[in-house]
């Protein structure tokens, strides 16, 4: 019997394998009840190039309420896209880490797209 985390990791495995085969930069998303995190990971998967999350002091100042809502996810999505564009990264593969593509994960992805990141 799988628990919730193992089931999510099993769902994420095939997506990650495909991204590794394509050898592209990856935008990985992780969410918890209280926070949402986004990381841009290099093509070979061994280095985290940049991160953005609701834990960062700059983001916490912009939040209304907790870091576990759609508004917070949109702020993090815009922030990670701005950091990536400043570093010269325009194209990434979206890795939702086995989370369902709705709610906060979808809000983060759409905000990153609006800020100019392509995936």
Characterization of the model:
There is one protein chain. The protein has 119 residues and is of the alpha+beta class. It has a single domain, classed as Nucleotidyltransferase, domain 5 (2-Layer Sandwich). Helices cover 45% and strands 18% of the residues. The chain has a four-stranded mixed beta sheet with strand order 3-2-1-4. The longest helix has 19 residues, at 4-22.
The helicity comes to 40-55%
CATH T-level topology: Nucleotidyltransferase, domain 5
Overall SS class: alpha+beta
Outline type: globular
CATH architecture: 2-Layer Sandwich
Number of strands: 4
Topology at a glance:
Elements: H1 4-22, E1 26-31, E2 36-41, E3 48-53, H2 57-62, H3 70-86, E4 93-95, H4 104-114
Structure keywords:
4 helices; 119 residues; Nucleotidyltransferase, domain 5; alpha+beta; 4-stranded mixed beta sheet
Describe, in short, the structure shown:
This protein is of the alpha+beta class. It is built from four helices and four strands, in the order H-E-E-E-H-H-E-H.
């Amino acid at each position: 019997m799988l628990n919730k985390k193992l089931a999510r990791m099993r769902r994420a495995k095939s997506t990650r394998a495909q991204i590794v085969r394509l050898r592209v930069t990856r935008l990985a998303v992780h969410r918890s009840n209280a926070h949402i995190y986004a990381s841009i990971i290099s093509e070979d998967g061994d280095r985290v190039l940049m991160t953005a999350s609701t834990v960062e002091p700059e983001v916490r100042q912009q939040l209304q309420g907790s870091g576990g809502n759609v508004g917070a996810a949109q702020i993090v999505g815009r922030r990670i896209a701005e950091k990536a564009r400043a570093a010269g990264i325009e194209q990434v593969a979206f890795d939702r880490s086995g989370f369902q593509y709705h709610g906060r994960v979808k809000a983060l992805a759409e905000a990153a797209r609006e800020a100019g990141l392509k995936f």
